Every structure is written in structure tokens, then in C-alpha cells.
Backbone:
């Protein structure tokens, strides 16, 4: 999995894990001033309030984006329950407190929201990489 990258406005840190991204573009559609794939760096947290950034990052379906408040250094996506959602023709979304282990029992680092592949074609198994769009997966 690719190394994560961090972007900050001084109050909030946005962490991006490219290996988890399924390119849903929720971030770009929701806060285009902050998330702009045509610019480098593509995340500029100076362009929105901390509250707006946190709210938008919580909408990331794959967990590729997460936030931490600098002063508390605490993840803002915390939930007390785990939620599993099967999406139409797409991945299984898992959100909350959980651990994922490989076939040898070794923990795999994840965010608090992940997208698990259902089509079997992902190049980043067990995580979804959006390949279901190209394969025409229905399920």
C-alpha cells in the first residue's frame, strides 16, 4: 500500500492514503476549493473551515481520507459502533472500530472506513480500487 500523505491548515490535519482511494470523487465534488486533482498539492486545507473539512472527509466512502485535530491529535472519525454497508455494484464499506488481518494473522493498517472488494478484480485486495467500474460488476 502507498505511504500516506498529510496536509494541514494549522488546526486540522488531513491524512490521505492513496492505496485506499476508490476515486469516488466525493471530496472533489463536496469541497472543490480544498480538493482539486488538477493542482499540486491536490489538497489545500487553507481554503475551507476546519469544520467543513471534517464534515467532508467523513463522507469519504473508502477511508482514504481522515482527519486529526492538531491540538488534541485525535482522529475525528471515531465511532462507537461498526457499520458494514454493501453498496450497489460496488464494494463493502466498513466504518467504525475494527481490525483487518491478512491470511497469516498479521494486522493490516487501515483507516476507520475501508472499502473491501466484492468483484474480485481489485489490484489492491482485499481493498477496492475501483476496478468494478471497468469490469461491469453487478452485485
Residues:
Amino acid at each position: 500500500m502507498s505511504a500516506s500523505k498529510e496536509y494541514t491548515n494549522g488546526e486540522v490535519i488531513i491524512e490521505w492514503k492513496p492505496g485506499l482511494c476508490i476515486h469516488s470523487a466525493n471530496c472533489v465534488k463536496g469541497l472543490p476549493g480544498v480538493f482539486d486533482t488538477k493542482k499540486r498539492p491536490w489538497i489545500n486545507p487553507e481554503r475551507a473551515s476546519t469544520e467543513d473539512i471534517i464534515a467532508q472527509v467523513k463522507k469519504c466512502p473508502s477511508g482514504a481520507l481522515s482527519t486529526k485535530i492538531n491540538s488534541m491529535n485525535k482522529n475525528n472519525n471515531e465511532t462507537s459502533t461498526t457499520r458494514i454497508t454493501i453498496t450497489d455494484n460496488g464494494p463493502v464499506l466498513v466504518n467504525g472500530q475494527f481490525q483487518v488481518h491478512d491470511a497469516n494473522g498479521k494486522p493490516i493498517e487501515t483507516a476507520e472506513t475501508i472499502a473491501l472488494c466484492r468483484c474480485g478484480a481489485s489490484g489492491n485486495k482485499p481493498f477496492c480500487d475501483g476496478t468494478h467500474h471497468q469490469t461491469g460488476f453487478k452485485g
In short: The domain at 83-135 is CATH 3.40.5.90 (Ribosomal Protein L9; domain 1).
